[in-house]
Design a protein that fits this description.
The protein is an alpha+beta fold and 59 residues long. Helix content is 46%, strand content 24%.
Length: 59
């Protein structure tokens, strides 16, 4: 599976945009299993953030 994104985040925390390097996007190959793990992790984080927001409103 080919994943393309307009930027990547470097280890030092800076974002490197593809247009700065003369590209439209950075593309890389990912296995379907890794992609599935990423989506599950992202969904888990979204639920966690939603719960935090709810708890904050109750205060």
């Amino acid at each position: 599976m080919l994943i393309c994104t307009p930027y990547i985040t470097l280890r030092n925390g800076k974002r490197l945009f593809a247009h700065e390097k003369g590209l439209e996007a950075f593309c890389f190959e990912v296995t379907p299993e890794k992609h599935k793990e990423y989506l599950e992790k992202k969904e888990k984080q979204k639920k966690k953030d939603k719960k935090k927001k709810k708890d904050k409103k109750e205060e």
